[in-house]
Amino acid sequence: xxxxxxxxxxxxxxxxxxxxxxxxxxxxxxxxxxxxxxxxxxxxxxxxxxxxxxxxxxxxxxxxxxxxxxxxxxxxxxxxxxxxxxxxxxxxxxxxxxxxxxxxxxxxxxxxxxxxxxxxxxxxxxxxxxxxxxxxxxxxxxxxxxxxxxxxxxxxxxxxxxxxxxxxxxxxxxxxxxxxxxxxxxxxxxxxxxxxxxxxxxxxxxxxxxxxxxxxxxxxxxxxxxxxxxxxxxxxxxxxxxxxxxxxxxxxxxxxxxxxxxxxxxxxxxxxxxxxxxxxxxxxxxxxxxxxxxxxxxxxxxxxxxxxxxxxxxxxxxxxxxxxxxxxxxxxxxxxxxxxxxxxxxxxxxxxxxxxxxxxxxxxxxxxxxxxxxxxxxxxxxxxxxxxxxxxxxxxxxxxxxxxxxxxxxxxxxxxxxxxxxxxxxxxxxxxxxxxxxxxxxxxxxxxxxxxxxxxxxxxxxxxxxxxxxxxxxxxxxxxxxxxxxxxxxxxxxxxxxxxxxxxxxxxxxxxxxxxxxxxxxxxxxxxxxxxxxxxxxxxxxxxxxxxxxxxxxxxxxxx
Length: 560
Hints:
Elements (H helix, E strand, L loop, with lengths): L2 E10 L5 E9 L5 E8 L6 H7 L1 H6 L3 E6 L16 H13 L4 E10 L1 H12 L4 E7 L11 E2 L2 E2 L1 H19 L4 H16 L15 H5 L9 H6 L20 E6 L5 H13 L4 E6 L9 E2 L2 E2 L15 H13 L13 E5 L4 E5 L8 E8 L3 E3 L9 E6 L26 H4 L5 E4 L7 E15 L3 E11 L5 E12 L6 E14 L4 E7 L25 E6 L7 E7 L4
Parallel strand pairs: 3-4, 3-5, 5-6, 6-9, 9-10, 10-13
Antiparallel strand pairs: 1-2, 2-4, 7-8, 11-12, 13-14, 15-16, 15-25, 17-24, 18-23, 19-22, 19-24, 19-25, 20-21, 20-23
Helix pairs in contact: 3-4, 5-6
């Protein structure tokens, strides 16, 4: 059907602030349900319209509303990250439900930040909101958004804050073209130099670049949360799912920076007895094809294919019709509760639950001579040592990340990392048979340091018969320590679904940095808000019978 597009349609919020949206409508027929997306990145930007595909969705029988959030682009008001989203979400849903030719039922769509605006609107309970479909978004902001294991999600927060500042500076200098040009030029210089210099500036918790551009608390992510912990509650969904009585369609990627948040959102909604579906592909935050990083997962992995089930947008449309037009008889099969892409096997699999109850937690032990084995270590296997120097951190090489150009996400060749003296590498013998790991992976590392504070980073890799090692999952823990004392540290590597093929080997890295993805621990114990001095730390990893360092794998039995 033909579609009409009306740009910058005003919606007045409860405090009188006007937000503006582009509205895509089927030209004839109706009434139609409404799909709403509220985003801070520019409702008309081709990247956003390309992902949301509003023309295609409208042709399928929906009114699609893409709204700039408060203080961004075409909308009035002052931008303050997350603060206004619950109330503005409520008011916008009610406004959208009353649009001409609407049937009064509203669903919400979108990714990342505009995945979170769905959850915050749902928590505010507008009566016309009937279903949400959040993609690649978080649950607990201190577990993937602001921080991970106590370390700052540094590359994400630094690059995001600077890129978001473009619109902030444009508004600030709207009446002074010369000042605007100078301000945007300085900002772009910092964005271009993120990898070479800006990421390296200290203190990490009060970054000099933000001060250079006059950015205030309302413009920031992690730093605002650091200074005002209650503020971050505006975007926290963890612990509040039971307050939401709506169906949800959750989509995530194994190499997305918010992968665990997507899983946690689904699990909590399911536990609360709400209708929920989950789709997990091999994707990163921004790539949804079959080629992710250095690995080709096959054409069926593409979001446009989904194992030949069809385009995700079409599947999402069918899902929404069940909740927004209950009188209709939507075509297409119902989604299973869980649809997982098993990497390594490179197949989609339907499941009835997450996590999988048939998974068996299985210990894989660090052993002497850089070994890795399922049998327990002996009494005299000793320790391994390395020196972590914050002046020369391990460079980020793949994994779930959002950062500047020059750092690729996803599964990458780990040879440059494994060649470093500050990375301990433990490798198993070749597998005699396939080994599927599906679920949450954790490590328990018995470690000592001579520093009052340091980080422990653990990574699980797959090594093929030709020796190519690619990363599967990883995690970090920031630990205050008693120097010289061995302590068992639990490191959460998050979740995966990965088939290690027969003939492949498992590999585990233990190190103390992954920069700039996570900020550097300066090994001094000083506050990240002020610390600029740093020192090397001498690290010891034990792996004997009394101190069995290990990684715990959720193994799927071969007969299941």
